[in-house]
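Re: Re: ligand-bound prediction request (bumping)

Still looking for help on this. To restate: I need the protein modeled with 2-(3,6-dihydroxyphenyl)acetic acid bound, output as structure tokens. Inputs repeated here so nobody has to scroll up.
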Amino acid sequence: MTSSSAPMDAVMDAPSAKRVKLSPYTKVNANGASSSRYRYHTGFGSHFSSEALPDTLPKGQNSPQVCPRGLYAEQLSGTAFTKPRTTGNFFSWLYRIRPSVGHRGYSAINAPTEIVGDFSCSTVALPVPDQLRWSPFRMPADSEATDFISGLKSVAGAGSASVRNGLAIHVYTANRSMERTSFYNSDGDFLIVPQLGGLDIQTEFGMMDLLPNQIAVIPRGIRFSVNLHDKQARGYVLEVFNGRFDLPDLGPIGANGLANPRDFEYPMAHYDQDAATNVAAPGPDGAPTDEWWRVVTKFQGKLFSAAQPFTPYDVVAWHGNYAPYKYDLANFMVINTVSFDHCDPSIFTVLTCRSLEPGVAVADFVIFPPRWGVADHTFRPPYYHRNCMSEFMGLINGAYEAKAGGEEDGFAPGGASLHNTMTPHGPDRNTFIAASDEKLQPRRIADGTQAFMFETHFMLSPTRWALERSGVVQPRYVSCWENMPVRFNPDGLEAIREDSSA
Ligand SMILES: O=C(O)Cc1cc(O)ccc1O
Ligand SMILES: [Fe+2]
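Reply:
Sorry for the wait, this slipped through. Here it is.
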């Protein structure tokens, strides 16, 4: 398969990482954002026109009697037809060699999965008010062939996909690319946060490459295949069952800052060059063979597969605002205090999925990027708190400022923590002592590191897999707050400085 869109210089032009020697990535801007293998359209939420071959998009209409180049027109609706423009009406038109419907029927994939689509069911997920932390989620052994789909496991969530209310948090681990397999999620939008290993994501809309410290959003229904750059990959997925990810409002910050719209990148039309001619024959019994493509969907938390004898990546041109996109977290313009006190982490929101209540998110994607800490006369790490929202955190790289050390049984890259609704949490004992006693001066926080949070107004239920079968839940997590020093001084205003808990 070769690309039909013009790739960048020194860039691979095939979708599968295995077939081509890959060019190394370089840093492309002063923020340390990485170069890309592919070219992209830019601009958050824009209505793009993208053609792998010139003059392919119909001019002035969507459904000509016969489309240019003899393609099929197919609309993909991301929102109800009648959704007001003011709250976002999302759709795209795809011009493809064959319509998507040209497949055999769906059959349920009966192999057991650890994917959950209904978190109210206590056989798969449980309410747990405890502080929870997981050591890095385990990678599959090389002998266990695992791709993005078979390696997807639900960690926590709320609500149910079938009534479009709630969300799911998954992790993926993989040691194989998806072979002649395409996936689409019927249940919601995916926000993918790679932690280990780069990904090449072939989508109906074109190619996207993704490294740790970059994220991708793949809205409901869009077909994609995940190919690995390296031997292994691991990452996190936030799935929202309703709504969509949007940029947060900036209020008094003004027009600029946080994640800027121009830094969001959308793929350019690309189709498998042999899409028209490479059609697999049925087996002697008329049944699909291994040469056929499998189109897998997650539908109400269950996996279904449909066979088709041709590639689903046959879109020669598309236009619309409903498309996948990526964003490099290095381009996030961090805002924080330059005087005193600790701001709420909402200042670090990259994307938000709004609920119907103004200012209350179904889910916020929040990052804790490298930055300067300059606050005067201030306890600089996160404050102790209890939150009406639920906080699920992951670590892409480095060590998180509220938790001393990034060792395996601490808060380590590839691990996670959950501080559910109203569950108290804050810096661990060592971090508290160090931050109370530190000499305050301007300091780089967390250079080279990136923690993130999925914050939601839903009460999250961790899955039984995460609690009982993942093998990495930390039974003694809560002990990091044991023996907090008591520095209360009834006789004076100065805190008692020696560690009175010892
Ligand atoms: O709990 C956490 O570590 C996340 C967090 C960070 C912060 O700076 C303020 C509040 C908050 O919940
Ligand atoms: Fe918190």
